[in-house]
Design brief:
single chain; about 190 residues; Aminopeptidase
């Protein structure tokens, strides 16, 4: 079978391992994402700042990691409880959209869409299966609080395999217009 996975939150003691692992490339052993447009290096300190910034008295961001049976970190992902900031209420759907929604289930029966944002996804070299398991575990863990999980990933990036996309999964196209000191390259993927 496969090795047993364990889902747990990132803890301060993980800092050095996180800093090392998050920078390794899952495919080449080179620094992960450094060849991507818009890459911002992540460290234990930048992740801690991201986790502790909240408009509420309690955190609304989490960073679960997936470990193997020996406790080695295989993958990690940021989770933002976007539904705590706002929800989307759909009150009137046309008959054709109602039929389509019956098949695809994009809008919940009560018409209230509560979003969960999955971001900062990475995995150790060769651990795309662990990253996919992590993303699916996040969706399962938040299933009673959120109705929609959203993520941004370049469709050309190997990381896209971590997401359980189906042919009917909404995948809007995004155009990026930016000016900065580093030239963007159409040959490089975008780091979201």
């Amino acid at each position: 079978m496969g090795e047993p996975f364990r889902l747990r939150p990132l803890v301060p003691q993980d800092g050095p391992a996180f800093g090392r692992l998050q920078l390794e490339s899952p495919d080449t052993g080179r620094i992960h994402f450094t060849g991507y447009n818009f890459y911002q290096p992540q460290t234990a300190d930048t992740l801690t700042r991201w986790l502790t910034t909240s408009p509420f008295e309690t955190p609304f961001r989490r960073y679960p990691v997936l470990t193997d049976g020996a406790g080695e970190i295989l993958a990690g992902a940021g989770v933002e409880e976007g539904y705590r900031l706002g929800t989307l209420h759909v009150e009137n759907m046309s008959p054709s959209l109602r039929v389509l929604n019956g098949l695809l289930r994009l809008v919940p029966p009560d018409g209230v869409s509560k979003g969960l944002i999955v971001t900062r996804v990475w995995h150790a070299p060769g651990q795309i299966r662990a990253a996919r398991h992590l993303v699916e575990s996040i969706c399962w863990r938040w299933r009673d609080r959120a109705t929609t999980a959203m993520a941004q990933v370049d469709r050309e990036s190997p990381l896209v395999r971590a997401f359980p996309l189906r042919p009917w999964t909404p995948a809007p196209r995004l155009s990026v217009v930016a000016a900065g000191p580093v030239a963007l390259s159409p040959e490089r993927c975008i780091a979201y």
